[in-house]
Write a structure and sequence with these properties.
Elements (H helix, E strand, L loop, with lengths): L10 H11 L13 H24 L23 H6 L2 H10 L20 H13 L3
């Protein structure tokens, strides 16, 4: 007989994703602003998005040790790994940020951020944040 996990074993993960992984605010920033202002705004917005959507699992330092990581299987990616950093392109990172883990053959516990598809400056800022953990 096949044993299925109890629904209660998924509740902590569901609570974390609901609280931290699904915060989808409306896009911000004035349209038609100069590209420099847009890049600055994108970098600032990326910091906010990382704090709101990523830190719970990936941690403030990018090691995959956020407060929600302990209950996740598989564990969140450790962005400080030089081997992993060398194995992915910026385009790979952009895709997983916007489409989510399941879309790229990774964990379905990493939710997509489709609202960022129309905000490439924020996605680029998130890629820079992830790349910055390698230093």
């Amino acid at each position: 007989m096949i044993r299925l996990p109890r629904v209660s074993s998924y509740l902590p993960v569901a609570a974390l994703l609901t609280t931290f992984g699904c915060d989808r605010g409306a896009p911000s920033g004035p349209e038609g602003a100069a590209s420099t202002a847009s890049a600055t705004s994108g970098a600032e917005d990326a910091k906010q998005v990382f704090a709101q959507r990523c830190v719970a699992c990936h941690g403030q330092s990018g090691k995959g040790d956020g407060p929600g990581a302990a209950s996740l299987d598989p564990k969140p990616r450790d962005y400080t790994s030089a081997q992993w950093q060398a194995s992915v392109t910026d385009d790979d990172l952009r895709k997983v940020i916007v489409k989510g883990g399941a879309a790229v053959g990774k964990s379905n516990l990493m939710p997509p951020s489709p609202d960022l598809e129309s905000r490439p400056e924020v996605v680029s800022g998130l890629v820079r944040i992830v790349r910055g953990f390698a230093k």
